[in-house]
Design goal:
Length: 78
């Protein structure tokens, strides 16, 4: 069973590496079902995507604020 887990976990995207390490250290892979692993990886991926979306939104807001303040500075000079 452990050899099967190695075959499953080895080719995964590097972004999953720290979650894989956590799974290996905290869960008995001999008793873990493939569906449980899949669920854990999907949950991580959803959290990761949500975090990326929030980061993009924050970046856009900061950019808009910067552009706004630059526009205000220009209008004050004119």
């Amino acid at each position: 069973m452990l050899e099967l887990w190695r075959k499953i976990l080895r080719p995964l995207d590097p972004k999953f590496e720290h979650i894989i390490v956590t799974i290996k250290e905290t869960i008995d892979l001999k008793t873990m079902m493939i569906e449980q692993l899949q669920g854990s990886l999907q949950a991580y991926e959803e959290k990761h995507k949500k975090k990326q979306q929030i980061t993009k939104q924050l970046f856009k807001m900061q950019l808009m604020e910067k552009e706004e303040s630059q526009g205000n500075e220009r209008s004050q000079r004119d």
